[in-house]
Here is the input.
Amino acid sequence: MKENIVIIGGGVAGLEAAARLIRLGYSPIIVEKQDHLGGHLAEWHCLFPDMTPASDITAHLVGEVSDANIFTSTEILFINHLKDSYNVMLSNGISIITKVILFTTGFRLFEASRKEEYGYGIYNQVITNRDLEHWFNTGEDARISSKPMEAVGFVHCVGSRDEKAGNAQCSKVCCITAVKQAIEMKKKFPEAMVYCFYMDLRMFGKKYEDFYISAQRDYGVRFIRGRVSEVSENIEGKVVVKAEDTLAGKPVRVTLDLLVLMAGMVCNPDSTKVASMISLQTDSDGFLKSKDNIMDITSSSRSGIFYAGACTGPKTVPETLAEARSAALDIHNFIESL
Amino acid sequence: MRERFLTGYNDFVLPFLFGMAFILTWCLVGMIRIIIRLPREDRRRFFLSFLNPKILLKDIKDIICDCLLHVKLWKRNKLLGYMHSSIAFGWFMLIVIGHIEVFFYAPHRAKLLYFPIFFRYFMAEDDSTMGGAFFFFLMDFFLLVVLSGIALAIIKRIHSKFFGMRRTTNPSFMDLVGLYSLWSIFPLRLLAEGFTADISGGSFLTKSLNSVFHAFLGNHVNMLPTWWAYSLALCVFFCALPFTRYMHIPTEILLIPLRNAGVKIRHPRKGYAEAEVYACPSCGVCIDACPMGVMKTHIKDTTVYLNRQLRRHNETRIEEISDKCLLCGKCTAVCPVGVEGDRLRIAQRSLRQYNITPDYSCIDTDALVRECSFGGQEDGKVLYFAGCMTALTPQIRKAVESVLTKAGIRYEMMDRDGGICCGRPMLMAGRFGPAEEMIRKNTEIIRASGATTLLLSCPICYRVFKENYSLDGIEVIHHTGYFDRLIKNGIIHLGHTATKYVYHDPCELGRGCGIYDEPRAVIAAAGELVEADKHHKESICCGGSLGSLTLGFDKRQAMTANALNNLTKASPDSIVTACPLCLSTFHRYADRPVEDIAEIVDRNMN
Here is the structure.
């Protein structure tokens, strides 16, 4: 079929939607800012709750879209609204006239240095969840020493559910990611003490609760309910974390070799920029605003513009996949009705 | 000149006399009330200040400059300054010259209070007194000056932007009564004197008015009603005065000697606080100054409205306004009469009753003392107190420690592993008891450490250590001042770069402690210093202040954005501040790097 479909973003949602559209007989165009496909998933090591390697999933998703037109290292310069279609101008000089645009622009990881009290960028022993995944993948990080670790800490909700950081929303996946990463660290350093500092644990997904219980029972990860108040460095080059254990009602202080900040999902400024070109609305949390947050999450207020994945709010990988499929179907129905 | 009437009296002087008697009694009673309610030592200090010729001279100078000439307003806004001084000084001169006239031409009437005011009604000109033309000219001249002031006042009321004021106060009903009666006094006087100009004589204004409108003004039947109207306008103004903002005129004359005597707010409502409240002229300069003013909903939370509610004893609103304020002190800095908006609010907060009062007396200081007195007493020992805000912005502490180490200065930390709060947050909340407890504990630790210099990174701590601690023999210094001295003494050297820095004056360091030059000197040594649109004492609060007890986080964002906008006018590469709270507030929304001075010094040290 000759109808053009532009998919902005080649992450999980973009790839899956493209794959489904190809199966429906379309040839979608994927525009990706980075030089590779896969989005955040490409940087991840393995996924909860079954420790599936992220590279397997990325490879599978990329393999499915080999028939699509893919522009990597390409950005959207502008989008014009024509009478009943859109003119999309790309940074590689190509311009596309299309009736359908799918936003799969995803999220951005919260900039952890904005929470100064946690010392990211100040102390070498403080890293983020992404840094840790990168280390799992490559084994390279100048900040992480090769010596066995004695104690590791995870801070939940860094830049999520935090009005002061400007993000009131829950990032959904950090709780379970922290549990997963804690288990992985424990596997690497069985002798180490691993602490998780949390506000509350939102174990909503399939097998999440089992995973959490296993972390406590089988791996001995210590969960401390309370926010970290401040982080400092001691003479031996370790980080000293002060927090409150709100269950015990006492302040706690632990000395750690590594502190991992579970940076949350925030709206992607690039996504907002592109959306503003065709005056799409953003919701109160900064993410793109769906036509309806229950019935019509993949539609925008404009005809022919669709959303899938984390551009409308934090989501897990299975949720994103489901939404991408749903958006593909919506697009198919929309084109049929033209 | 001769008298027209043997009695030297007419019934129309009665309203004026009544008004005058009323206002004089009111002011006298009010003054006694304020003085009696001062604490005993303050009262003593107040009376003694009149015996000190230096203070007395300052009193006189301040009263002339502030109440008559409005010098501070002139400096701030020429048009506003002219408007106020023309009315105040012009009216004052009318009264003075009026008395001189009486003294010259009818000295036997000098004891009559009303005679100088209605002089031209009671006197008639004859050929022998042409010398009076000089006084007539002066009288007409000053009447014209006052009238020009009134004209400006009317324009200001209609179109405040003409005066460069974005917003002005919304007058209360009584303010309007006072306002209109004040406006009507001088045109009525002009009219009344116009009627009598052909009898009593006049000058360029009254005489010409009489000649031009001779058909009307020459008709003496209309003369008496006009003089009645003039007297009535005076009566209305005087009687309304205590209930309007114009009460600031007499109150300021009392406030100036009180302030010069060193009297401070000791009670939220009585004594000096009351004098400040009534000295507020409702000019509204604080409305544009207030950092909360970026949102229209907060206009009624400015100092001018606090004073109005305090006069009305509206407790609910007083509490709301007092709690909401960020205590940045800008209203105090710009106030032409010296109303201390921040201190007034803290005093109101002290009235609050709390169910739980924390008890800090059981805090054991032994461990803390041990930690910072390793080296024992030694001359020139530096004790570094980072404070809780610096603990939350570790980059500052790291930079300060790094500079000290590189400079080879021996120092010990007072709160490496937790310490006691400086007490300022409690003081700001008006909870003086717990604050004093903490001040006592910290004083113990500092004394025991044997240090001679107390180094601070947080202006909030710095201010309380300066103002509320008695640390004689120990120098209290903020790191900006300390680094400045290290550079000047050649102990550290900074490499100069081409980076463009803008300096944000933190409220507590700038307006609070008057430290403006040292941080600028340090920055200038490290790079190019540019100024924000509003700086020094006009600097805009970052919005993160812990002074406010109720202001929500969502409301502060607009203030931070406004402050950032002000800072980036000269498009600097980096924003520099000297307060950990400002740093973390700006860091959240800034589009360019935000740094503390210590970080710059650390980076540029060679």
